[in-house]
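Support request from a user on the community tier.

User writes: "When I paste my structure tokens into the form, the page sometimes reloads and wipes my input. The last time it worked, I copied everything first. Here is what I submitted, just in case something in the input itself triggers the reload:"
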């Protein structure tokens, strides 16, 4: 019944393309990423906690690949590759600096569970930065469109909010990774065992990367969707499967605020 009604509203050529066209590679990667994240608690139940690093690696790589293709479709190969390399290089350097000296996050160290590593930093970490930072840019770009003209194009406000939108994700991530034994803080405390300096370091690094890259002409809606899916998976997963109700609720509210503000701009224009 529904398909017949849709058919009456659309031209025949459009309708046929909708029901026959295979999903794009980007859509397929997003679906596989969601499936990998949903399957992770099941994999742990079947094979034990030792499977977590492998499942996590799969999910991060799928999400990073989807973000790469979303950016490539708008920016082209050269700019997308340059952005990915810059994010990877700087985030790897900052993570090495942080795990070696304690600046800018606080003193922590990576465990040997996540392999391979470069200078004691898992190779997966720069991919994680890349998979979420463009999504944070897109969310803030959508939020700024709702502001008065004075603030809608204010670069400093954009940098500040982009750093916050990215750091909001770590309200889930850091307690989760520590609970999984993937890294360890020398002086736990603050936010569910995570030092507050960690979040200041995340924010500062995200602001620096955003300032260096100066992202323009973002594919905002696909990236906003990826940001939203991440928020949902983290909130639902930590609350119901990983026993981390506190980070789930706090992260759900803070990151969820960015999600709501981002989508409000989308639906407000319709």
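"...and here is what came back when it finally went through:"
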């Amino acid at each position: 019944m529904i398909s017949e009604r849709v058919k009456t509203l659309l031209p025949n050529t459009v309708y046929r393309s909708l029901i026959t066209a295979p999903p794009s590679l980007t859509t397929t990667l997003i679906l596989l990423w969601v499936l990998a994240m949903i399957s992770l608690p099941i994999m742990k139940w079947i094979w034990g906690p030792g499977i977590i690093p492998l499942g996590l690696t799969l999910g991060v790589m799928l999400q990073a690949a989807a973000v790469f293709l979303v950016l490539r479709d708008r920016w082209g190969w050269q700019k997308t590759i340059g952005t990915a390399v810059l994010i990877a290089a700087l985030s790897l350097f900052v993570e090495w600096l942080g795990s070696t000296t304690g600046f800018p996050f606080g003193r922590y160290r990576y465990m040997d569970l996540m392999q391979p590593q470069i200078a004691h930093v898992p190779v997966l970490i720069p991919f994680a930065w890349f998979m979420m930072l463009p999504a944070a840019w897109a969310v803030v770009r959508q939020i700024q469109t709702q502001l008065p003209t004075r603030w809608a194009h204010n670069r400093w406000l954009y940098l500040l909010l982009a750093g916050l939108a990215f750091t909001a994700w770590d309200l889930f991530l850091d307690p989760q990774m520590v609970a999984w034994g993937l890294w360890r803080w020398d002086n736990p405390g603050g936010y569910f065992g995570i030092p507050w300096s960690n979040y200041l370091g995340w924010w500062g690094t995200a602001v620096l990367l955003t300032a260096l890259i100066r992202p323009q002409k973002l594919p905002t809606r696909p990236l906003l969707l990826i940001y939203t899916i991440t928020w949902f998976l983290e909130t639902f997963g930590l609350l119901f499967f990983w026993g981390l109700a506190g980070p789930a609720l706090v992260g759900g509210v803070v990151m969820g605020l960015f999600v709501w503000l981002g989508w409000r701009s989308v639906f407000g224009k319709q």
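Agent notes: The reload is a front-end session timeout and is unrelated to the input. The chain has eleven helices and four strands. Residues 5-11, 13-19 have pLDDT under 50 and may be disordered. Escalated to web team.
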